Amino acid sequence: MKKELSRRWQTAMIALPFLFLVIYGSISFLILVTLAALICLYEFYSIALTEVSIFHEALIVAYILTPLWLLLLYTGYPEYLWMIATLNLMIMAGIVVIRFRDQTGILDIVTRQTLGFIYIPGLVGFMLLIHQFENGHKWIYVTFMMVFACDTGGYFIGKQFGKHALCPAVSPKKTIEGFLGGLFLCVLTCLFFAILLHLPISMAHMIGLSTVVGIVAPLGDLFESAFKRVSNIKDSGNLLPGHGGLLDRIDALLFSGPLIYGYKTFLIV
């Protein structure tokens, strides 16, 4: 327990100051998000396409189109994203039809590659949209800290007090007690940082937003855990000591981004 805590804090102490500095810059944040998306794509396809002979082709297609996807978001042309998604589908369809004489499994391969393309750059792109809000860097801070608090609270409270499994078929170690602990810490963290950073949001919206994030964030974790369980893999990678791969660290963030963007856009005026 103490060893795990030490490893997690070592990684956090290295990553967080760098992250906070990068968030302030518009171009630097775009670069950070793009690099994170490319790393996560590799980790995801290593899980979803590990037994497929066109792993490298699938990865290259996604690597070419992902920067274009994120650049369109960054420059304010989200209406063209459907073209990038369609292009990805068409290229992958062409590759599998040419490469595979046996048509068995073609649909599964294209579906997995397309899912990865939508799942990673599609969801991580919401970080760019949140960053473009007024006081966008503050919203990014609060977003990251809420998800971090939810994950940390869920892990340690679940370790200490967890007795009732939350979703044993997918992640046997996750407990209802850990889920509630993560939710509680997520709300407290949102209140603390929103007030500290003078974020223009009412107390009611702080509680409402953080409650929804505290509920949805664990679903992102469980979604990735389901893929790892099917592939009999513990971690998506070993990039971050004490945390596994980068996708292991931001899976909850991927699900939280669209929700925070939608909440801020449609409910907070």
Automatic annotation (TrEMBL):
Signal peptide residues on this chain, from the entry's feature table: none
EC number(s) stated in the UniProt entry for this protein: 2.7.7.41
Record-linked InterPro entries: PC_trans (IPR000374)
Main localization of the protein described in the UniProt heading: membrane
Topology versus the membrane: Multi-pass membrane protein
Pathway: Phospholipid metabolism; CDP-diacylglycerol biosynthesis; CDP-diacylglycerol from sn-glycerol 3-phosphate: step 3/3; Lipid metabolism
Alphabetical keyword list: Cell membrane, Lipid biosynthesis, Lipid metabolism, Membrane, Nucleotidyltransferase, Phospholipid biosynthesis, Phospholipid metabolism, Transferase, Transmembrane, Transmembrane helix
Reactions catalysed, as given in the entry: a 1,2-diacyl-sn-glycero-3-phosphate + CTP + H(+) = a CDP-1,2-diacyl-sn-glycerol + diphosphate
Gene Ontology cellular component list: plasma membrane
One Pfam assignment: CTP_transf_1
Annotated compartments: Cell membrane
GO biological process: CDP-diacylglycerol biosynthetic process
GO molecular function: phosphatidate cytidylyltransferase activity
Transmembrane region(s): 12-42, 54-74, 80-98, 110-133, 139-157, 178-197, 203-223
PROSITE patterns the UniProt entry points to: CDS
Protein family membership: Belongs to the CDS family.
Entry-linked PANTHER family: PHOSPHATIDATE CYTIDYLYLTRANSFERASE (PTHR46382)
Protein name: Phosphatidate cytidylyltransferase
Species name: Candidatus Magnetoglobus multicellularis str. Araruama
